[in-house]
Design goal:
This protein has about 475 residues and is of the alpha+beta class. It has 2 domains: about 260 residues, Aminopeptidase, CATH 3.40.630; about 200 residues, Alpha-Beta Plaits, CATH 3.30.70. Helix content is about 30%, strand content about 25%. The protein is built from 11 helices and 24 strands. A hairpin with a 3-residue loop joins strand 17 and strand 18. Helix 4 crosses helix 11 and helix 10 crosses helix 11. The two termini are about 15 Å apart.
Amino acid sequence: MINWKQEVENRKEGFIEDLRSFLQIKSVLDPDTAKEGAPFGEGIRKGLDFLLETGEADGFRSKDLDGYAAHLEFGEGDELVGVLCHIDVVPEGDGWSSDPFAAELRDGKIYARGAIDDKGPTMAAYYAMKIINELGLKLTKRVRMIIGTDEESNWQCVKHYFKHEEMPTIGFAPDADFPIIYAEKGLFDCEWRQVKSSETNEGDVRLLSFQSGRRLNMVPDQAEAVLEGNVEIEEIAAEYKEYLNELQLIGKLSVENKRFIFHLEGQSVHGSAPEKGKNAGLFLLNFLSRYSFDQGGQNFIELANGYLTGDTEGNKLEIKDSDDITGPLTLNTGIMTYTTTDGGIFGLNLRYPVKHDFESTQRKLTSVGKQYGYELNEIEHLTPHHVPKDHPLIKTLLNVYEKQTGEEGYLISIGGGTYARSLEAGVAFGALFPGEEELAHQKDEYVDVENILKAAAIYAEAIYELAK
């Protein structure tokens, strides 16, 4: 009998040191530094190198697939157990109480962007593999950690990887919640893009620019609008102050060269639960709807307020739906931009149930955009993923979870997309325990040290049971 928790405890100091070093690498998508071997920028390349070099030093077989993805492997056998992780993180955002890439350890927590999504869980899975390898346990299957580098954007990494490498027989992604996530909604990233900017001098006000949002899978926490026109500064300032106070929002209005510049702060959360955030862009567009704009600006604002503002379920678009496996459809407006030269763009992140009629929704989005002079462009589409409840993978992982925690295991469905859906038989398995605070993609993201060590013990036993 192996005491997995004790094996992790024996390596606690090294685990924390490696995790902090890993988190201090700013592995954010950076197209400006992209090059051959580093398709997503220097920061992500450094994160990938760190994990590969650590793995090679610990005796794992490694392979780098052009910087798009890589893997670390040990064991022997025809079958392959996959552990799918990613080392890229979303931009840090604003409002942190400490440097988001300092990986500060305080009160038993490590604070850093990527601490829980997904570098902390990745390191826990890595140490699980390290323990099994160091103990020299006999396996009948190979175990492979597949390392992605573009999970937070367009998943080009796993697409590239599985063009060249075999598909694991079974596996899990340590990138969500315990006990087990067995079903994931379909993910549709798309944009409404104005076909042709309609520039006229109609209306009292002219919208010069609008900007909100960094990523489709994040609720925007900042918005800025610049406009000019026939309005009194005292009047518009009073109206804006009243609006902010009424909705308990933070914002400001300034004037430069006779142009009105609006700022508004919202609250960013993961795009899979947009109802928990405050969409700064949609709140600001809602305020601006009280004025009469030039045609291009008017169409931009009316499209937002007619079909997106105050609605994260698709009610206004008449696409609301839910099923008994994955629950309700969600809609996040993650990016909103407008200029007088290029017109408007709305970046949408749609997450729909397993049983949803996606083609009908796609037709509806196309039709609504067309009414305002916008075309619908697909950015990324991942179909729903579902592993049957009686699958051996699920039975094994539930048994390990219950044994290690003493708690009854159960199955969860989510709106988020994990690498588990890349596998024919894959689930998401931790590392966040029931009741833990969820701060992925938010300021002051952290990982609880004791909990991530506990997760490492669970992963170690799970990998061994799957591969022995």
